[in-house]
Automatic annotation (TrEMBL):
Note on how the cofactor is bound: Binds 1 potassium ion per subunit.
Protein encoded by which gene: nnrE
Protein name stated in the entry: Bifunctional NAD(P)H-hydrate repair enzyme
Binding positions for K(+) per the UniProt entry: 63, 118, 160
Role summary: Catalyzes the epimerization of the S- and R-forms of NAD(P)HX, a damaged form of NAD(P)H that is a result of enzymatic or heat-dependent hydration. This is a prerequisite for the S-specific NAD(P)H-hydrate dehydratase to allow the repair of both epimers of NAD(P)HX.
The species this protein was found in: Virgisporangium ochraceum
Any one GO BP annotation for this protein: metabolite repair
């Protein structure tokens, strides 16, 4: 698990570390790491640094300082380095070093470029880029498009124009879109959540010795393969289908039988051996998945270790009764889609409050708004945490980088998201998989994180093969589980 810290926490750690080091050491470490990464990229793409055309965009703070010191290092290796100074007040020592190494000031982006180094703003940036910087970024984007996608864009610490602490991008047209972001000391939320995560491109973390000085809890954590593999319920040879956990699905309706099938497909790819389906789509479920035991209602189904409720369930009287039956069970419950619509008017407040086992809700932004009264807004992590605390439930807030927030204040960002998942029915697959993980005994936050991770991988695998439907995502789940858990 990697943590991401907000700017204030990074600054506090930096201060504590700097107190033990000679002045300027951290910037030298950061700039050296940045120069190394830039040289590596030039080497990979163009075979070397010598003669390559590099443009440094330098803002008024230390972010510009990092960029100009790195530019100086590249100039010393023979690169043709120009710098656009975006403020009258720029980091003096690094500018001098750059000029001494052969770098030259430039008024505007001009001609063919191989590499742009974005040192406009780092963790000191606030709001959308100011006019001058925004104009240069827009001009660089236009020139890049005309030049067939060249140059490579490297953001220093964060892509300029994003909100570091939230991952929001107030003006996407005027924010840098990086191929690679070279960041220092620790990840920041902008690298892992919201639109800013997409603007960051590949994120490369340079160690500057900060780790031991980050004493606060990270704002958000990011799982990797080893977390998922470590958490995934393993099967002892003595397990039978019951000890592996039974997941119950109260999903689908006459109007939406497909949602039942997709949620079952998701559940079958999880670690549990036994899936019970309770609903009006029993016939299609049995036909398509003969191993699933079906009944027409939650009341008639036997026991389960977790219930999934809502995907395609509808919002009629019958659906309300099924939701009440699910909420009354003493086991973990996932509320998705129509179940979220049904709880939005507050009519289920009491049964929800009375639950002792975990509740997980899986809203997209509009469903979130129905429950919370407003869309998540700029700070998706904070919004999800607030709702989690308010409802005493784990919130899985869907998005390009799905956020999982728990009532204990922990928050996670899923790194495997894919735009391919923004298509009808993928949420049903996710809910089924999540149900299986809960029935398999994972604590709710981990189950939600692991389900989002594997589901995201499946989305990517499906997208590699062409236009993606929820059926394609379900079909890739087994492969995704194998990849994530080995
Ligand atoms: N922390 C660490 O461990 C290390 C940090 N290091 C580096 O330092 C960086 C932080 O440097 P920093 O504090 O000087 O701030 P930074 O991000 O350069 O920009 C602030 C300036 O930008 C301006 N500005 C603000 N918003 C703006 C906007 N929307 N549009 C346009 N301009 C805007 C604002 O101007 P002002 O409001 O003052 O006019 C302010 O002066 C950090 O990201 C990393 O690269 C490494 O060297 C070593 C280890
Ligand atoms: K930057």
């Amino acid at each position: 698990m990697k943590g991401a810290w907000r700017a204030a926490d990074i600054r506090a750690a930096e201060k504590a570390l700097m107190a033990k080091l000679p002045e300027g050491t951290l910037m030298q470490r950061a700039a050296a790491g940045l120069a190394r990464r830039c040289a590596g990229l030039l080497h990979d793409r163009f075979g070397g640094v010598y003669g390559r055309r590099v443009l440094v965009l330098a803002g008024s703070g230390d972010n510009g300082g990092d960029a100009m010191y790195a530019g100086a290092a590249l100039a010393r290796r023979g690169a043709d380095v120009r710098v656009i100074r975006l403020s009258d007040r720029i980091h003096g020592a690094s500018y001098k070093a750059l000029v001494a190494a052969g770098g030259r000031p430039a008024p505007a982006p001009h001609g063919h470029l191989d590499l742009v180094v974005d040192g406009i703003v780092g963790i000191g940036g606030r709001g959308a880029l100011r006019e001058r910087a925004a104009a240069v970024v827009a001009e660089a984007v236009r020139a890049r498009a005309e030049d067939g996608g060249a140059p490579v864009v490297v953001a220093v610490d964060v892509p300029s124009g994003v909100e570091v602490d939230t991952g929001d991008v107030p003006d996407p047209a005027a924010a840098v879109r990086a191929d690679v972001t070279v960041t220092f000391g620790a990840l920041k939320p902008a690298h892992v959540v919201g639109a800013a995560a997409v603007h960051s491109g590949l994120v490369d973390l340079v160690d500057i010795g900060l780790a031991g000085y980050l004493v606060t809890r990270p704002a958000v954590e990011v799982p990797d393969h080893s977390d998922i593999a470590g958490w995934w319920p393993s099967h002892a040879s003595t397990d039978d289908k019951y000890t592996r956990g039974v997941v119950g699905l109260a999903t689908g309706s006459d109007g939406y039988p497909g949602a039942a099938l997709l949620s079952v497909a998701g559940a079958l790819a999880g670690p549990t051996g036994y899936v019970r389906y309770a609903g009006t789509a029993q016939e299609s479920v049995r036909e398509r998945f003969p191993s699933v035991v079906t009944t027409d209602s939650v009341g008639a189904a036997g026991r389960a270790q977790a219930w999934v409720c809502g995907c395609g369930l509808g919002t009629d009287e019958r659906a309300v009764g099924e939701l009440r039956a699910v909420l009354a069970t003493p086991v973990p419950v996932i509320l998705d889609a129509d179940a979220l619509t049904l709880i939005a008017d507050g009519s289920m407040a009491q049964p929800l409050r009375e639950r002792r086992a975990a509740t997980v809700i899986t809203p997209h932004d509009r469903e979130f708004a129905r429950i919370a009264g407003a869309e998540p807004g700029a700070d998706r992590v904070e919004a999800a945490l607030r709702l989690a605390a308010q409802m005493n439930a784990v919130v899985l807030l869907k998005g390009d980088r799905t956020v999982v927030a728990a009532p204990d204040g922990s928050a996670f960002a899923n790194p495997t998201g894919s735009a391919a998942l923004a298509t009808a029915g993928t949420g049903d697959v996710l809910a089924g998989l999540l149900g299986s993980l809960l029935a398999g005994g994972l604590p709710a936050p981990r189950a939600a994180v692991a389900a989002a991770y594997v589901h995201g991988l499946a989305g990517r695998l499906a997208a590699e093969k062409g236009p993606t439907t929820a059926v394609d995502v379900a079909a890739e789940l087994r492969e995704a589980v194998t990849l994530a858990t080995r």
